[in-house]
Amino acid sequence: MKVMAAEMKCLHITTDDLLREALNIRMKVFVEEQGVPPDLELDEYDESPTSCRHFIVLDDNRPIATGRWKPYEPGVAKMQRIAVLKSYRGTGVGRLLLQGMEDDARQCGCAESLLDAQCTAEDFYRKLGYVTESIEPFLDADILHVRMRKNLRS
After folding, report:
1. pLDDT of 133 higher than 80
2. Which N-terminal residues, if any, form the signal peptide (predicted)?
3. Is 38 helix (H, G, I), strand (E, B) or coil?
4. Over the Cα atoms of the chain, what is R_g?
5. Burial of 106 (0-12, 13-18, 19+ CB in 10 A)
6. What whole-number distance in Å separates Cα of residue 77 and Cα of residue 80?
7. Sign of torsion over alpha carbons 149, 151, 73, 9
8. For residue 6, what pLDDT is reported?
């Protein structure tokens, strides 16, 4: 297991360079590891740092995790494309990333967070306060997912 460095930080992406780094992480995790077609992975929300709220976690300035959120409905942020490099999974990086994204959503006036979790990650999100809403899992990019929600005000 990779040991986390003291210099780990979660940043809101505001530059094209950091966005490229984030997209590289997603390509490694979703396309190379999980077999998601590249045309399904990238969309209009990846065109620029301002297309939605992109985040990246750096470990001593090395990009290791990314995610994004966008408004889903009034007061609700939809967390998406949460990806952690394989060697950093299980070290708390995902928690750091999601907490940074939730804090930002809260500051932007969101009272709830919504996400479609891969079924293999459902327990991870449950430990962070998310509740499963789906009656049955559903396919997204040929991977089983469940819809989950969290109150950001409590």
Report:
1. yes
2. none
3. helix
4. 15
5. middle
6. 9
7. negative
8. 58
Contact 49, 68 (CB under 8 A): no
CA distance 127 to 1: 20
Domain boundaries, the chain: 9-110
Strand partners, 58: 9, 63
CATH of domain 9-110: 3.40.630.30
pTM of the model: 0.92
The rounded distance, in Å, linking the Cα atoms of 94 and 71 is: 21
Residues in the chain: 154
Over pLDDT 90: what percentage of the chain? 89
DSSP state at residue 110: -
- H-type helices in 1-154, by residue range? 16-26, 38-41, 93-107, 122-127
Structure confidence by residue, pLDDT tens digits, 20-54 = 999 999 999 999 999 999 999 999 999 999 999 99
User: Facing residues of 131 across strands?
Assistant: 149
Q: Is the pLDDT of residue 5 over 60?
A: no
Query: Which SS3 state, helix, strand or coil, does residue 1 take?
Result: coil
Contacts of 71 (CB under 8 A, 6+ apart): 77, 78, 110
Q: Per-residue pLDDT for 1 more than 80?
A: no
